[in-house]
Specification:
There is one protein chain. By secondary structure, this protein is of the alpha/beta class. It has one domain: Uracil-DNA glycosylase-like domain (Uracil-DNA Glycosylase, subunit E), CATH 3.40.470. Helix content is 47%, strand content 13%. The chain has nine helices and five strands, in the order H-E-H-H-E-H-E-H-H-E-E-H-H-H. The protein has a five-stranded mixed beta sheet, sandwiched between helices. A hairpin with a 4-residue loop joins strand 4 and strand 5. The longest helix is centred in the middle third of the chain and has 18 residues. The structure holds iron/sulfur cluster. The site of iron/sulfur cluster (SF4) has 14 residues, from helix 4.
Length: 196
């Protein structure tokens, strides 16, 4: 499947389907193993991500690396991407921009076919709730929860988490995020056991 992902990456790099293309230095397609069991979805590229063309490389990315490390994962173990692929100067995407961009994310999920999808923040959670048909009430109520959804071919587990950037802005939230990730250890253990 990796050649199909690469083909999709090239399409995204040249995409002009919504006005956000005018903001970008580099589109941020996503990175990780094309057959990853765990996929992480954030909102969209910030300043540093836009410059490097890679997801989660700024301060929030460093925090995410620590969170992954805390459950025995490395970045290279997971596929990381965003709902929107071009720079969001104000960290917000309109409904039209999300609608224009999410067919790319739909295709990434189809090609990677992960067992677990971790939605980071409200925009990712809302996208996942629409895609898989569950109700997203609020991150306050649903953070850390595992939602099992059935697709045509299998059961996928969705996990909703606060976005790491929220933890940087709000120290009490940082502790909640660290606790939520701590609870993922048993899931990571199960994924590894299945692979052995
Ligand atoms: S944000 Fe998505 S839809 Fe809009 S131009 Fe970039 S890649 Fe295309």
């Amino acid at each position: 499947m990796s050649h199909e992902l690469e083909r999709l990456r090239k399409i995204v790099e040249e995409c002009r389907k919504c006005p956000l293309w005018k903001n970008r230095t580099k589109a941020v397609f996503g990175e990780g193993p094309p057959n990853a069991d765990i996929m992480l979805i954030g909102l969209g590229p910030g300043y540093n991500e836009d410059k490097e063309g890679r997801p989660f490389v700024g301060a929030a990315g460093k925090f995410l690396n620590k969170l992954l490390d805390s459950v025995g994962l490395k970045r290279e173990d997971v596929y990381i991407t965003n709902v929107v692929k071009c720079y969001l100067p104000e960290n917000k995407a309109t409904d039209e921009e999300i609608k224009a961009c999410t067919p790319y994310l739909d295709k990434q999920i189809e090609l990677i076919d992960p067992e677990y999808i971790i939605g980071l923040g409200n925009t990712a959670a809302e996208y996942l709730s629409r895609k898989y048909g569950f109700q997203f009430t609020s991150m306050e109520k649903m953070h850390g929860s595992v939602i099992k959804v059935s697709t045509i071919s299998k059961e996928v587990k969705i996990i909703l988490m606060y976005h790491p950037a929220a933890g940087l802005r709000n120290p009490p939230l940082r502790k909640i995020i660290e606790d939520d990730w701590g609870k993922l250890s048993h899931i990571i253990y199960d994924v590894r056991k299945e692979k052995m």
